[in-house]
Amino acid sequence: MSKVETLATLSEVTATYNDAPALHKVDLDLPEGKIIAFCGPNGSGKSTALRVLRGLHSPVQGAVSVAGRHVSEWNPRDLAREVAMLSQSPQAPEDMTVYDLALLGRYSHRGRFAALTDTDRNAVDRALAATNMTGIATRTLGQLSGGQIQRAWIAMVLAQEAPHIFLDEPTNHLDIAHALDILDLVTRLNRENGHGFVIVLHDLNLAMRYADHVVLFDDGRIAGEGPTQDVLREEAIRTVFEIDCRIITLPDIDRPVIVPLKRCELSAICAAE
Amino acid sequence: MDGVIVWTLRLPRVVLAVLAGMALALAGALMQRALRNPLAVPSILGVSDGAALGVVTFLWLFSNESNALTVSVHWLPVAAILGACGLAALIAILALQDPRPNDPLRLILYGVAMSALAKAAVTLMMIIGPVYRAGQALRWLTGSVNAAHWSDVAVVGGGLFIAVPVLIMARLPLNQITLDAASAQSTGLAVNRSRVALLILSVLLTALAVSQVGAIGFVGLIAPQAARLYYGQFTLGYLVVTALIGGLLVLTADTVARMILYPLELPAGALTALLGAPLFLTLLTRRQNVQS
What we know:
heterodimer; A: alpha/beta; 2 domains; four-stranded antiparallel sheet; 29% strand; B: mainly alpha; ABC transporter involved in vitamin B12 uptake, BtuC; 13 helices
């Protein structure tokens, strides 16, 4: 109990994105085994932070370690077995079937010459079942709706069976019912199988409801980090998002809800600071 | 006597046409994969013209007055490889410094520009060089399989012989690389390494084929597209079908080119271009990837 397990660490990380500064000397320790949400306004650096953590984007400065090793020491295959990631706008050919896409998630487990094993097939079947895609597994991506495509990608990420999963805005393109489905699935995988998640979430109420831990980004810096309800507070939201809001508790649900009221006046921000 | 004619004149020409078609088709399929762009094939990006430039430069530098080579003709594929690699390197440099690297058409435009440059250089060399060299060099402008020997067959066959085991080993990466770079990398593919390896193999196959049959264009565009349409593109069979279609295409083009205006022989490349150019325009107006 004395040792706090760490999933990933950023130390003094500075990064740019398309030549614009995206992260500025960020220090961050992410705890293992939790559902962690990255929140913040557009362009605050949350997506860049996730890409840097997964080794998809090289920082200008600073050290990054993930799953116990410096990120540059991992070879791609071994890292893929530890950390899966769904990026923000993934692309695949439109004539690829849902099943074949999910199968691509098995890449890091498959030998160069080995045929498909039962383990691979079972992992794909489980992933398709979990995302409710079994019935349309033989359809091509070109035949799917936006929400179905997003679930096909999530199936691919699940088929990878990595203990840690990074999701960059997984509820994009999903209606509220499917968004809740995905986040319920995330919760189940976390509570039952111990998967650790880091999720970029735009919707503060979804973060409030599903995340154990929140990192709040503001203009390339970290404005707050810790257990969800300690971070998502009215003052913090006012400073970071420049909106007035109320956080209220409803009688029959365990997490409070955030009610955005209006964009706050500049003077109000100044007053809050 | 008939046997000799078939064995020394007809058969090498047929086998060379098939093997060169296979090499050009595979080169096209690999380059499309590596660059995730169905338009990005060696003849569109000008890699074939780079190889042709290498060949013409070689003829220009190493021919004497009596139209004979002063060095062994076995160096000719090397010259083609150097030309193709040089041109591919130029396009790579242009593409890497591109301010908008995600626009697939910009790469094509760089290719078109480089291809025009290589063609201009070839034409210039033919005009300023003595007439006897022009005749030799003309063969590489549009491509033609006439005058084939078994040694020519061996060069292209050798290239394919190297390519086959590499492609069997790369069958999983070849599918993985159809994903965007971030997704491919997240699932465990060493994206840059795979991409470079596939491009090198593609450039090599192109150069070897062009060094023997000239710059027969559009085979790398037509064959993979036809295979994808009628067979599917996510198993190793796709490459087999692509190669077969490519072989058949060049053989047909060469045969038709020889017979249609007999005794005049058209270049085979003129016929493949007739088929390839409309397909290029069709692909240009079509959406290829789904984005979530």
